[in-house]
Amino acid sequence: MTVNSMGLRWRLRDWKHMLVRSIFSMMALAIAFTTLSVSGQNRSTAHSKFASLTDPDKVFEIRHSKSLLVCSHRDGENPDVWSPDSCIADIPVCDNSGHAGNVLACLAYPVDKFKGSELQAAAFSVSRIESLSADECVKKWARSDTANIHSEEIHGLKFQVGHAVETGNSHAADESIYRVFHKGACYELDMTLAIAQDSAFAAEDVPRKLTAAERDQIRGVLMQALDGFRFLK
Q: Which domain holds residue 106?
């Protein structure tokens, strides 16, 4: 074999290697671009599932699932009557602890999703209790049966947390209560799930029970609102 033919073979081999490397580089770029595009779409989709609610004084903000309904007072003369209907239960879910006049925000789970079940209403609410000192805020609970009291930290805020079950007139409410003292006022964040008990119905009309998975689903959405709570000032 001549020197010229050997040189030609080497050049052909080098060109082949360069072509293969170019093809692999183009494939890698295409995969990276596709991954970035899908990642961006996922972030955009995730972001589109949430909304933000800010209190009138712009003290705090709640980033929450768009599936939750913003509750409002039905009329000024009845601060304990809320709208829409998903915000209403025999044991109130918005004005937990009986401080209806200080409720600053209330978000309710749409109960139509569980029509025919025992669920009456479920909500996440934020209240400001002006009458409690810093010490009372984390020690003086509205109900004497408040149990499982402990501390939890959420985004740098240290909350005192309690749990209570309220019953009355064949209805019951499961309540998780989060307290924090912030800039001279006691703030209470509540997650409340209210149900109608069997004794509230005739035997043939007793609604079905919520499953454990359904309760977890509701609680998960309310927990997103709790996790999305931020003080703005």
A: 50-231
Same domain flag for 157 and 67: yes
Is residue 104 located within the same domain as residue 138?
A: yes
Name the phi and psi angles at 217, rounded to 5. -65, -45
Task: Quote the pLDDT of residue 110.
Answer: 96
Q: Residue 120 and residue 108: Cα distance in Å, rounded?
A: 11
202/225 same-domain check:
yes
Alpha-helix residue ranges (DSSP H) falling in 95-179: 134-137
Asked whether the whole model's pTM tops 0.90, one would answer no
How many structural domains does the chain have?
2
Specify the pairing of strand 171-182 against strand 72-75. Answer: unpaired
pLDDT in tens, 33-61: 444 344 444 444 445 799 999 998 999 99
How many H helices and E strands in the chain?
Answer: 3, 12
The H or E element that residue 25 is part of is helix 3-48
33 and 99 belong to one structural domain: no
Are 143 and 191 in the same domain? yes
Q: Is 36 helix (H, G, I), strand (E, B) or coil?
A: helix
For 38, counting Cβ atoms within 10 Å of its Cβ (0-12 exposed, 13-18 middle, 19+ buried), the class is exposed
Residue 126 sits at the vertex; the CA angle it makes with 120 and 132, to the nearest 5 degrees, is: 120
pLDDT (tens digit per residue) in 83-126: 999 999 999 999 755 554 589 999 999 999 899 999 999 999 99
- The dihedrals phi and psi of 169, each to the nearest 5 degrees, come to 50, 45
Q: Residues 197, 171: contact at Cβ < 8 Å?
A: yes
